[in-house]
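In the design runs reported in the main text, the only information available to the sequence generator was the tokenized backbone. The following block is the verbatim input for one such run; it is reproduced so that readers can re-run the procedure and compare outputs position by position.
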């Protein structure tokens, strides 16, 4: 059973730059689990690079982290010896085990999870494909697909204003918010126009105003200038990380 004591025994392995980890981090903050231990992991060969570190080197540097995440990927959770890794599995674990009042799933949970999976599996990949593509036509095609999926996401929101559910945060908001925060990366490297000024995304403007003013989400927001610098190797094609290989444009465009 989850008690106040066991809630204190949570180690959260995160990376300040990682949008997948940011959603999980926000969920923990939302639940006011003040005792969880935030542990920063740098899974790359150099600070602020996207050069993949070997699993052997990660195990040497971060042995406890590798117990929680055998593939060496963030985010990961060690909850009193119970290990969970990957964004989706961490989200589900928090929802099933830690969010005892179902504060993030208290209305239409099936629709919330559907939106979560839509963002993770269909929308987010085009963010990375646009950034990773080196040919101009591939960049433009990926950007168009990304915008198309944002329109779909906007149409799926259950209320006309505010959060996905209107007046309160839910797991659906966590599926999109970290990448909307990172839109300036695509603006900087791929000349994406400012979607926050595009009337075609008026519903998402209201949504972002609600999300970005939430204190729990604000705690997880890295300065955009730092993120732009951190993502430069995705943009110039030199990244060798798992994300770079997973979303390589030639596989999809």
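Verbatim output:
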């Amino acid at each position: 059973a989850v008690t106040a004591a066991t809630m204190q025994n949570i180690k959260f392995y995160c990376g300040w730059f990682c949008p997948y980890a940011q959603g999980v981090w926000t969920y923990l903050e939302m639940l006011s689990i003040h005792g969880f231990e935030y542990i920063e992991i740098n899974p790359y060969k150099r600070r602020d690079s996207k050069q993949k570190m070997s699993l052997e080197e990660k195990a040497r540097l971060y042995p406890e982290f590798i117990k929680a995440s055998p593939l060496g990927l963030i985010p990961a959770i060690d909850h009193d010896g119970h290990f969970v890794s990957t964004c989706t599995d961490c989200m589900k674990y928090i929802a099933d085990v830690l969010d005892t009042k179902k504060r993030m799933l208290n209305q239409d949970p099936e629709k919330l999870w559907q939106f979560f999976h839509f963002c993770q599996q269909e929308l987010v990949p085009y963010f990375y494909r646009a950034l990773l593509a080196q040919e101009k036509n591939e960049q433009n095609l990926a950007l168009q697909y990304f915008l198309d999926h944002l329109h779909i996401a906007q149409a799926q929101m259950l209320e006309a204003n505010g959060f996905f559910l209107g007046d309160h945060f839910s797991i659906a908001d966590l599926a999109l918010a970290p990448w909307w925060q990172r839109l300036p990366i695509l603006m900087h490297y791929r000349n994406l126009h400012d979607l926050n000024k595009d009337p075609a995304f008026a519903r998402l403007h209201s949504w972002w105003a609600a999300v970005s003013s939430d204190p729990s989400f604000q705690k997880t927001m890295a300065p955009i200038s730092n993120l732009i610098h951190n993502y430069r190797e995705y943009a110039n094609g030199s990244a060798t990380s798992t994300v770079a290989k997973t979303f390589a444009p030639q596989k999809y465009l």
